[in-house]
Amino acid sequence: MTVNLMVITESKTSEIEFARCECCRMKEEYTAAYIESVRCLYAGIFICGLCSEAVKYEIFRWGKKKRQISIDEALAIHMKFCGEFIASPSPTVDFISVVGDIFRRRLILNLPRVVTSAELLPPTVDGGEVCATAVIGGAGTGSCLPALPGGA
């Protein structure tokens, strides 16, 4: 009877089940024994192998910089990082903001443009403002309106 009980217990720990990492939210198959051992290491929180390595790296990084930190502190730092990453906007919005940052940096640093053809001054209106034709083409027409669709 005891042998059967041990076999049942052993088979339950080797059963595969899905678990979700509480840092990155990745869901994957693990054995029950592995899930339990990870939860014992990280105060009842299950984290995947990649996040586990990131937590170890946080401990190493803080140890080199300032002071030793505990596993709980390193886990909190990594969970905060993952939370910010997961809460970031969609990739499209993120891409647009990155491109905007690149243009802003270029303007702030006043980097020279890469010129592939002859340098042309943008067409201007009487007040000295840049005309829309500088952006969409049609320079030399004397007016910005003909360059726009349906313009006069």
Give the spatial strand order of the biggest sheet.
1-2
User: What is the global morphology?
Assistant: flat
Calculate the mean pLDDT score and round it: 73
User: What helical percentage do the residues reach?
Assistant: 40-55%
H and E order: HEEHHHHH
- Count of folded domains: 2
Largest sheet, strands/sense/barrel: 2 strands, antiparallel
Q: What distance separates the N and C termini? A: 95 Å
Pfam family, one: DUF1677
InterPro entries: DUF1677_pln
Protein name: DUF1677 family protein
Q: Can you tell me about this structure?
A:
This protein is mainly alpha-helical. It has two domains: 2-88, no CATH class; 89-141, no CATH class. Helices cover 52% and strands 7% of the residues. It has helices at 2-14, 32-41, 49-65, 71-86, 91-109, 133-136; strands at 16-20, 27-31. A two-stranded antiparallel ribbon has the order 1-2. α3 (49-65) crosses α4. Mean pLDDT is 73; it is low at 1-9.
Short description:
With 152 residues, the protein is mainly alpha-helical. The chain is built from six helices and two strands. It folds into two domains: 87 residues, no CATH class; 53 residues, no CATH class.
